[in-house]
Structure formats: C-alpha cells, structure tokens
Amino acid sequence: MSEEVIRVEDLRAYYTMPNNVYVRAVDGVMLKVYRGEILGIAGESGCGKSTLLRAMYGLIEYPLKVLGGSVLLLTKDEKKFDMTSLGIDRLRKGVWWRYISFIPQNAQNVLNPMIRVKDHFIETGKNLGMDEDEILERMNYWIDSLGLSRDVASAFPIQLSGGMRQRIVIALAALLEPEVLLADEPTSALDVVNQRVFVASLSKLHKKLRNTVIYVSHDLELLGIFTHRIAVMYAGKIVEVGKTDEVFEKPLHPYSKALIDSIPKIGDTRIRKGLSGRPPDLRNPPPGCRFYPRCPYATNRCRSEEPPLVEVSKGHYVACWLHAKR
Amino acid sequence: MGVSAPVLELRNVSKYFSYGIFGTMLFPAVDDVSLSIGGTPQIITIAGESGCGKSTLAKLALGFLKPDRGKVYYRGKDIWKMRSREKKLFIKEVQPIFQDPFDTFNPVEPIENYLRKTVKTFYGETRKEDIENVIASVLSDVGLSYDDIRGKKSSELSGGQLQRASIARALLAQPKIIIADEPVSMIDASLRINILNLFRDIKEKREISILYITHDLATAFYISDLIAIMFRGTIIELGSTKDLMEKPGHPYTKLLIESVPDHRKRDRWLSEEVEAKALEIEEFRLAGCKYVNRCPFAKDLCRANRPPLVEVSKGHYVACWLHAKS
Amino acid sequence: MSYILMNRRLIGLVAFILAMVIVAFVGPYFNPYKVEPQRWNYVPKDRPPSMEYPFGTTTLGQDVLWLTIYARRESFAMGFITAAISIDISLIVGSLAAYVRSPVASEVVASVIDAFCVMPLLPILITISLLWKQQLNPIFIGVILGVLGWGGFARIIRAALLSLQERPFVYVAKASGYGFFDLLIKVYTPQVIGWLIVAFINRIIFAIGMEASLGLFGLTSLNRASIGSIIHWSLTYQAFLRGIWWWYTFPIVLVVVTVVVLYLIVFELQKSLRRGVTL
Q1: What is the 3-state secondary structure (H, E, C) of C17-64?
Q2: What's the whole-model pTM score?
Q3: Boundaries of domain holding A231
Q4: CB proximity list for A154: less than 8 A, separation 6 or greater
Q5: Within 10 A of B294 (CB to CB), how many other CB atoms are there?
Q6: Which of A314, B86, C180, C187 has the most CB atoms lying inside 10 A of its own CB?
Q7: Structural contact between residues A50 and A185, judged by C-beta atoms closer than 8 angstroms
Q8: Which residues of chain B are within 8 Å of residue C172 when distances are taken between CB atoms?
Q9: What is the dihedral of CA A239, A241, A242, A243, to 10 degrees?
C-alpha cells in the first residue's frame, strides 16, 4: 500500500469574472495521489484539469482564486506543504523545483530565446543555491539520459526542434530531482512521433527517479499507454478514478464510456458514436449531476441530486447514481 | 473521365517559401507533388506531421496560393488561366473548411451573412424566405437549426456549432469537392466523431469528394478511402486504407502508424528507441530522399536521388528505394 | 458602434473637445474689436485678468482671450489638415505595400515607408521655416507635417493588411462569393477602423505639439495669432520674469488640456473598439 504524496480535499478553485461572477472551474474535487505512480488526468476542454494541476502546484494568481478545500504535499522527509495557501513567493523559495516541478503546456515555448540552453540551467540552479559544477554535471546527466547530444547545451533554443526543446524542459524540471512532476498537456502541439519521444523520455525519468508524475491531457489513448491510474474530469468534477486498465476495459461512468467509445482506432472501422450537446456553463452549473443532459442512462434523481464519488471496487471510484448505493 | 469531369488535378506542383535574413534563402514547402481528386466520390486523406506541407498543399489546391512550379487543373483547365466564369465555377465546386472554427467567419458579422451570401452567389435564390429555407434545410443536415445561429456572431457560438456551420456553408455552394484542412483538430474528442461521421454521410449521400488533411492518423483511417502520407513537402506513400494498414511500404509510414497512441499496444510504443531529429529547414531542401537523415535503412543512393512513387501493388504507391529499382 | 456610444466617459471627452472646437471656430465672429487680436496696441498693456479682460492683456496691447481663441482656431485647423493628409497617404501607400504581388516591389515600398518613419522632422521644419518665414502659417505647417509624417501609420496598415490576407475568414469570404468591395467594407475596414481613428487623433496631437515647439524657436509666422507666436512674443518680452503670467499660461494650459483629453479619447476608444476586432 503506497503512501500519499498529494492529498486534494474538497478543492474549490474558481475564476473571477467582472460583476462578481465566478467560473467554477474546479468545484469540489477530492483526489489522492500515491508515491511512485504515474497518474493521468483526462478530460476535454473546460473540464478543469489544467486548473486542478495549477492548484496542486500552488500557482494561484488572479483571476484564479481558491474558495475552499486544500491541497497538501507530503514529502519523504515528512514535511507538509499546504499548496493553496502558502503563496507564490514562499513556494518559489522552498518548494518549487525542490519537491515539485511543473512542465507547462506547449513546453517547447517556455525557454528564453535570448539565452543558451546551459544558461537556463545555470540560472535556475543558482537561484536554488546550487554551484555551477553541480549544475553542469546534472545537466549533462539529463541530457544524456534523454537521448540528446551534448552540443545542445551551447545552442540557443531557437536552433533546436520542438521535440528537443521539450526534452530540455523535462531536464530542467528534473534538475533537483523533485518528488513530484506535474505536466500540463506538454505535447499538445507536437506530432505523434515527437510526442512518443517525449513521453518515453518522461517514462525513463520516472523509472530513474522513482518519483510521482501527474500528467494532464485531453488525449485519453495517450494516457492509456503510460499511466498507472487515470482520473476522468467533467465540468469541474472528478467523475471516475481507477487503475488505467480497469477504466479502459470497464469504464463505469457513462461519460468515460462515451469518451472511450468515441475515439477511432487504427484497424477498427466500426462506425462510432459521439456525444451530443455541450458541457454546462460553469458560471451557473445545474444542481444535480452535471452530465445529466447528455447521459443516455439519466434518471430523475440525476437531475436534482449530485452523486458523490464512491469506491465501487478496490481503488476504482465513480460519481454516478448507477453505481452509488443509497 | 472526359475533359469536363469535375476532377481537381495537381500536376508536379511545387511551392517555395523564403527564409533567413532578408528572405534570401528558399525552401520548397511542397516539392513536386501530383494528386487528383474528383470524379468518383471518395475521401482522400493527406496525412503528415505539422510542418510537412499539407496545409500549403490545401491552399494550392484551393487556388489561394499560386504554385511556383507545376500546374493545378480543374475540369481540364489551368485554374490560374481561367476566365471569370470558369473561375466562378471552380470556386463554387471546390469549397474549403478550415481548422479553427472561430477564425472561419468574419468576427464582426453574424455568421448567417456568409451562409446567405453563399446561397445568393451560387444558388441563384434571391427571395429572403427561399434563402432561409435552403439554409435551414442544409443546417439540419449538419445537426443545427436556423434558430441556433440566427443573428449570432462567432464569439456567441461553440467550436462544435461553428464547425458544423462551416460545413453547412460549404455544402450550400453545392460543391463537388470539399477540401478540409484539419477540420476536427480543435474540436473536443467526444464531438469529433460526429463531425467525421458527417463527412462520411456527405460523401455517400451527396456524392461529394473530400480532401481531408490531418496529422491524426486514427481519424484518417476511420473515414478515408485513400491515404497519402506527406513528409517534408513530398508524398512518400499513397494507397487505400487497407493497404496502408496491412502492408505499409515506407519506413516513415510504419513509424507514424506505430506512434499513434493505443493503450492496447503499450509495450512496443514505450520501449522502441525512437530518435526524433530536428525539424530543420534543411531537410526540406534535400535533393535526394527527404527522410534520409532519419531512416534506419538509408543508403548512399537515397541521399543522392529522390525515389519516385512506384506502384508496389494495385493502387498502392511508395516512394522509397527499398521498393523501386534504381 | 454601440460600445462606443455606451462608453460615457468617451462621450464626455468627445463633447469637451467638440465644445473647444466650436468656441475656436465660431468665436472669431464675435470679436468685439475692429481688428484681429494679433495686431498691436488696441487695448491697454499688461493688464492682469479682470472682468473686462478675462485673460488679461499683453505687453503688445493685445487681448489674451481673443488671441487665444484665434490661435486655437489655427491649431485645430492645422491639426485636422495634418491628420487628413497623412492618414490618406498612409492608407494608400500601406495598402499598396500589402497588395503588390512581386516580393521585390513589396520590399521597395516597405523601405520607402520606413524612410519616412525615421525622417528627422524638426530639422526639416526648422530649415523650411528659415527659408520661408513669411509664408509660414499653421496651415502651411499642417500640410508639411501631413506630407512628411505619414510613415508610422502606413507601417501599421501594411502589417495589418498583410496579416489579414492570410486569415481563414478572408479565404472563406472569397469562397462564399464576397467580391472586392464586400471584402473591403465588411471584412477589412472593421478591423482597421479602430487603428485609423486612433492614428488620426494621434496626428492631431502631433501637429499641435509641433506647432508649439516651432513657436518656441520663433520659427512661425509672427504676425498671425497662433500658439507658437504667443509663446514666442511672450518669451521675447520676458513675460515670465516680468510677472505677466497670464500672457502665456492660458494658451499653454489650453493646449495641454487639449492634448491630454485627446489622449484619453484614444485610450477610451481602444477599450471600446476591441470587440470582434482581432488585430
């Protein structure tokens, strides 16, 4: 039984809009992340997965606001960090890069085009109190591990391909070998081949460091390939969590099922059906289950009462009246 | 297939773009490509990674860009030498659908203006009720009602609705060929399949050919009759969906197919050592086979001479020295 | 359009400027003196502001209030002329640069635009004013500034049109049967009109500022009522040291207020025009 490394409890993270309107991007999320696992967070645009990841990292800036709940980071050396209340300055000083790192969306564009690759490492490392030799040693280690050649260190980011830049961002994130690595759709702009290289690199990193990886993506099949557990999000809530294989073979929530069914696979030419309709407006979500208008199994209860997230089989949770007992 | 058959033919078409300081260097985004579509209704896919030249090819086919070499023929006539009446017929019969549904309609006008204009230009209807009836009928074919879009601008509709409206607009011109450039890339996964099914219907019920451009092989295999794989401006393989799935000829095709995430095939996907090299403009400018720097089977012959497309079995063409005799 | 009308601050600012313009152009018809205010010695000298002379009088025996009104007329007329001329040239040259097919010609036009952008206007104006001091009046200056100062906006137009041409909604419009005029009026103009109004006002501000600067050097026709000449004469007669503050303060304050209000209008316009415009 693994220990927890991140505990999200009833998190409510909203975006403030003019006229005191809130977009309830993450609306009551409970999630446990275990040490050493690769957890995938899946969902379509607007479901709140990126917001959840940011809240886990503690990157809470206007217009994002945490209105309730907490995110606890529990480290190996028995420290506890309350990520949503510490504030960016405090996090930057002692928590980010050391215990937890973040690989943002379109990672290939976050490098500073004005400085060389190795200067990125040196700057970051110095801010964290490392000395130059140590920095360069680690940098070379990661460059080798990720299959890049040593000359990328003296190149400017613009001279490298998107795929190479992404791997450099991984190396930067891994500099101090943090316990948790968060990745927010880092490969959405890449082609499948480069995506494969990136994910393979990330897997290698995970094997070497034996750390925890949380990967957010809208590409369910991609998550299906390399994650241990998957959490499916819809309209600001987690609707299903479980072992990846279980969720794929026996999806319990109608939304997960529909999502899995609607992805075409090479070699399978059956006609598939997608969903109709749209997710609810998160400024004013409906009272009951948020999937109600689009659910083929909906009942009256679903319209008025929100189903809680319950454990249906070991480690497999779902929020649906089809499965929850009274 | 007579001279006036509604066939769009690209013959040895090349397009050069400039880069570098003062734009003095040139590279071929499309290099000597030949393709024909029309006649028998079918869905032909041009698949390739981002930057391979497929969008440029789409614009050349639509007449939005002029080829630097080679010619584009429609109904037997060079589209750049057509008289205005022939040109109008070309515009009517070869219609576009673009990737970003929010950038498809003029943001300051209600989208129905484009629909009305299309009807007025190509249908010949002038009375308001007739125009509305025609539009409403086509909208219902794509799953929308006139009230859904009445008076609304792009910003007031969702991506899925806008893309359907974009398809409706193309259909209103009563085209023979629709050229769709990544039409579902910006649509959520669960809604994608509906639009793909719509394309299937359009081909079968309205007998319209579709040139489908994508980087997502899974969707390509789902709806296509023929698939052409593009790499750095050249078509390296062309064949039926069955041929490509069962007997892919080109090493790049094999790599692409294997890199598509499929949770059932994870061991192979994760373990294979894939080296993704830089997207270098230089690769576009190679005189020989453009894949030579990445190909595990590369020989001197490949570097020196570009392999022609040869027929390896009926209707299945591959451009690789492994298959062609020199 | 409605966003513009709903911005009450904007309406207020525009009303303020309009009021000043109306006073400047209609005012002269109410001139109580039988001569133009820039003539000398038609009123007692050096009187401070009072009921009889609300803005006081100058050392040359001029009524500052009427001097200011006439000078403002010249300023606004000049500003408008500069803006009208330069925006027209910018539009024509900028559009040309975007639509010319051959890449060489396109670069040539772009370089011409850049040349006009970096043209050193003050030295040129100083030279012109030394050569043609007598003919120099705000109208003339306005024309010169218009003919020389169109570079900035031409660049913007060129860049805007070049990027607009590539946008899918332009292609789709053509595929729907939109012709040249349809595209111009319904697609291109709405994107560009915001910038155009901003650039227009910008040119007015620029012209007014230039005119005042020239006056500082005495490089303006000194026998017309203009802000420049007021400043010049007040400096020549050492109004500051002699304590005749009303001579230069009222005109300068009005100019500053005008410029600030115009800037605020630009600012508010940019807020209101953002909807649907994707440039």
Answers
A1: HHHHHHHHHHHHHHCCCCCCCCCCCCCCCCCCCCCCCCCCECCCCCEH
A2: 0.83
A3: 4-318
A4: A116, A117, A118
A5: 17
A6: C187
A7: yes
A8: 96, 98, 104-105, 114, 166, 169
A9: 110
C156-159 long-range contacts, Cβ below 8 Å, gap at least 24? C156/C90, C156/C94, C156/C195, C156/C199, C157/C90, C157/C91, C157/C94, C157/C95, C157/C97, C157/C98, C157/C192, C157/C195, C158/C93, C158/C94, C158/C95, C158/C97, C158/C98, C158/C109, C158/C110, C158/C113
Cβ within 8 Å, pair C176-B104:
no
Based on the structure, what is the number of domains in chain A? 1
* Structure tokens given for B42: 């079918």
Distance CA A306, CA A303 (A): 8
Give domain status of residue A326, yes or no: no
Give alpha helix (H) positions in B95-227. 112-122, 128-141, 146-149, 159-172, 189-206, 217-223
Q: Return the structure tokens found at C174.
A: 């053509």
Residue among B154, B178, B158 at smallest CA distance from B168: B178
Closest Cβ–Cβ partner in C103, C169, C278 for B104? C169
Query: What is the distance between the alpha carbons of residues A228 and A226, in angstroms, rounded to a whole number?
Result: 7
For residue B103, the distance in angstroms to the closest alpha carbon of chain C comes to: 6
Do B269 and A278 count as a contact with CB atoms less than 8 A apart? no
Is residue A307 domain-resident? yes
CB contact under 8 A, C190 and B108: yes
In a 10 Å sphere around its CB, with 0-12 CB exposed, 13-18 middle and 19+ buried, how is residue B297 labelled?
Answer: exposed
Contact call for C177 and B122, based on CB within 8 A: yes
- CATH number, residue A177: 3.40.50.300
Chain B neighbors of A273, CB-CB under 8 A: 193-194, 197
In chain B, where the domains are located: 245-326
Considering the domain C2-272, what is its CATH architecture?
Answer: Orthogonal Bundle (1.10)
Considering only the beta carbons, identify the residue of B64, B103, B117 that sits closest to C177: B117
- ipTM for the predicted complex comes to 0.88
What distances in angstroms separate CA A283 from CA A14, A21, A23, B264, one per listed residue? 9, 7, 4, 38
For every residue of B230-285, DSSP letters joined together read EETTEEEEEEEHHHHHH---SHHHHHHHHHS--GGGHHHHHHS--------HHHHT
B266 vs A161: CB contact, 8 Å cut-off?
no
Strands B7-19 and A64-74: unpaired
Size of interface B-C (CB pairs under 8 A): 65
- For B65, nearest residue in chain C (alpha carbons): C166
Q: Are B196 and A264 in contact (CB under 8 A)?
A: yes
- B128 backbone dihedrals φ, ψ, rounded to 5°: -55, -45
Q: How many CA atoms lie within 13 A of A247 on its CB side?
A: 33
Place of tokens 């070499």: B69
The Cα B99–Cα B187 span in angstroms is 9
Burial class of B4 by CB neighbour count within 10 A (0 to 12, 13 to 18, 19+): exposed
| Distance of residue A272 Cα from the nearest chain B Cα, in angstroms | 7
Cβ of residue B163 closer than 8 Å to a chain C Cβ: no
The tens-digit pLDDT sequence of chain C (279 residues) is: 556 667 788 889 999 999 999 999 998 888 888 888 888 888 888 889 888 888 888 888 888 999 899 989 988 999 999 999 999 999 999 888 888 877 788 888 889 999 999 988 888 888 887 887 767 777 888 898 899 989 989 999 999 998 888 889 999 999 999 988 888 888 888 888 888 988 999 999 999 888 888 877 777 777 788 888 888 888 888 888 888 888 889 989 999 999 999 999 988 887 776 655 555
CB A201 within 8 A of CB A1: no
Exposure b/e, C124-139, CB count within 10 A at least 16 = b:
ebeebbeeeeeebbbe
